Amino acid sequence: MMMHVMKMAARIWTALAFSVRVVQSQQHPLDSLTADEYEAVVDILTADGRVTDATRFHQVSLKEPPKSFVKSFRGGDPIPRAAVAYIRSSPGRTCRAEVDIASRRVVSFDEPDMAEGQPMILFEEFYGAGEIVKVDERMVEGLEKRGLTPDDVYCVPFSAGAYGDPDEVGNRLLKIGCFVRPAHDRNVTGNWFARPIQGLLAVFDLNTDTTLDVVDTGVVTVPTDPWGYTSAEIEERYGKRPLAVARGGRLLAASSPAVPADVGYAIDGSVVSWDFWRFHYRVDKRPGVILSEIEVNDKGTWRDVAYEAHLSEVFVPYMDPDVCQYYRTYMDSGEYGFGITMTSLTPGVDCPKSATFLDSTFHDDFGMPLTLQGTMCVFERSTGDPAWRHYEWFAQTPDSSIPADGRPATELVFRYASTVGNYDYLVDYIFMQDGTIKVAVGSTGYFL
């Protein structure tokens, strides 16, 4: 039953990802792995006898060539392509494989010491374990105390952290809490986290597909308010929000700026150029977007600013000592992945309608390619500030007034959004005309 649920969950995620087949080719040694290359990694490992029906691919990433090679690379040079894959074919055994895609051979295959950590959570683990737990007789009993049945709830697995508990030894644990399902049909949006069932928690081991324990600290009243966030639900709660009107009665524009006739940036393959800036981008399942070879043009000479920049980690400690809460110290990038949780951006909401939208290709739990549409956007925007200005007092005469001279400030934004459970993270790399790079990381969505 567990395997059936897990496979169903993986298929559901694949469908949700809006998969399309994209033909890609490499122009730069740091380009993202393509759909063909992900397939090649699976094929090469299978031919080498390393892959079975039980094998799952936790992470497949580009193996970067040496920096010296990248810096000396010129267009048209042969490009070495290799990948590093973390896979599991049996419980408790994680293997690291290095695959040379160009020569179609396995360079190395070993079992690293994972005593202090676990590979990333798979989608089939995330979606499948909750379905198993909620029908455990101890969980059913706990739900009955609260006037609920398994059909009334959905259960969400969370990473369990590492606290030296005896259950951690030799196990791959998830802590699973449940929520009352929204009244909406599953295909309609609603606040799925509005009604938590507090004081009831399951401990689940993915290595053995068993519920090790169900903790019930007593009945806590379940919230009754669904706190929906859709426009219709907000209007029902608060009434229709009036349109913003500026002084003098002019209606403030609610839409994005008008689409310009042209843009000041160019995208050549995976290289973005704007003003005196130039940088390369790619995507990876764990950190999301990776920028590299960030340079500025100094009077015709390209100068290095940063070789590589990407998100390192997002640590989310809830800091609640309750037995059903203390484990909530999530590593949202390392455990869940800021790349694979990237979501399609909505023009006019997430980015201006005039932005350029870019797709991302990752891999699913079986190592096969998965393309997510419109997950990154690039756009210029005016800051509303002057980049430089000067009003010259000495130029003024009694007969004429000379206005200030100046230049409006414009910046380039490279943005993506990752949704990890209830949090929607937005990450911006902002390139400015004074040589500054700003990195903005923020969260929206809703809080538990």
UniProtKB/TrEMBL annotation:
<protein>
    <recommendedName>
        <fullName>Amine oxidase</fullName>
        <ecNumber>1.4.3.-</ecNumber>
    </recommendedName>
</protein>
<feature type="signal peptide">
    <location>
        <begin position="1"/>
        <end position="25"/>
    </location>
</feature>
<dbReference type="InterPro" id="IPR015800">
    <property type="entry name" value="Cu_amine_oxidase_N2"/>
</dbReference>
<dbReference type="GO" id="GO:0046872">
    <property type="term" value="F:metal ion binding"/>
</dbReference>
<feature type="domain" description="Copper amine oxidase catalytic">
    <location>
        <begin position="260"/>
        <end position="446"/>
    </location>
</feature>
<keyword id="KW-0801">TPQ</keyword>
<keyword id="KW-0560">Oxidoreductase</keyword>
<comment type="similarity">
    <text>Belongs to the copper/topaquinone oxidase family.</text>
</comment>
<keyword id="KW-0732">Signal</keyword>
<dbReference type="GO" id="GO:0016641">
    <property type="term" value="F:oxidoreductase activity, acting on the CH-NH2 group of donors, oxygen as acceptor"/>
</dbReference>
<feature type="modified residue" description="2',4',5'-topaquinone">
    <location>
        <position position="423"/>
    </location>
</feature>
<dbReference type="Pfam" id="PF02727">
    <property type="entry name" value="Cu_amine_oxidN2"/>
</dbReference>
<feature type="active site" description="Schiff-base intermediate with substrate; via topaquinone">
    <location>
        <position position="423"/>
    </location>
</feature>
<dbReference type="Pfam" id="PF02728">
    <property type="entry name" value="Cu_amine_oxidN3"/>
</dbReference>
<dbReference type="InterPro" id="IPR015798">
    <property type="entry name" value="Cu_amine_oxidase_C"/>
</dbReference>
<keyword id="KW-0479">Metal-binding</keyword>
<dbReference type="Pfam" id="PF01179">
    <property type="entry name" value="Cu_amine_oxid"/>
</dbReference>
<keyword id="KW-0186">Copper</keyword>
<dbReference type="InterPro" id="IPR049948">
    <property type="entry name" value="Cu_Am_ox_TPQ-bd"/>
</dbReference>
<dbReference type="InterPro" id="IPR000269">
    <property type="entry name" value="Cu_amine_oxidase"/>
</dbReference>
<dbReference type="GO" id="GO:0009308">
    <property type="term" value="P:amine metabolic process"/>
</dbReference>
<dbReference type="InterPro" id="IPR015802">
    <property type="entry name" value="Cu_amine_oxidase_N3"/>
</dbReference>
<dbReference type="InterPro" id="IPR036460">
    <property type="entry name" value="Cu_amine_oxidase_C_sf"/>
</dbReference>
<feature type="domain" description="Copper amine oxidase N2-terminal">
    <location>
        <begin position="28"/>
        <end position="108"/>
    </location>
</feature>
<dbReference type="InterPro" id="IPR016182">
    <property type="entry name" value="Cu_amine_oxidase_N-reg"/>
</dbReference>
<feature type="active site" description="Proton acceptor">
    <location>
        <position position="332"/>
    </location>
</feature>
<feature type="domain" description="Copper amine oxidase N3-terminal">
    <location>
        <begin position="119"/>
        <end position="218"/>
    </location>
</feature>
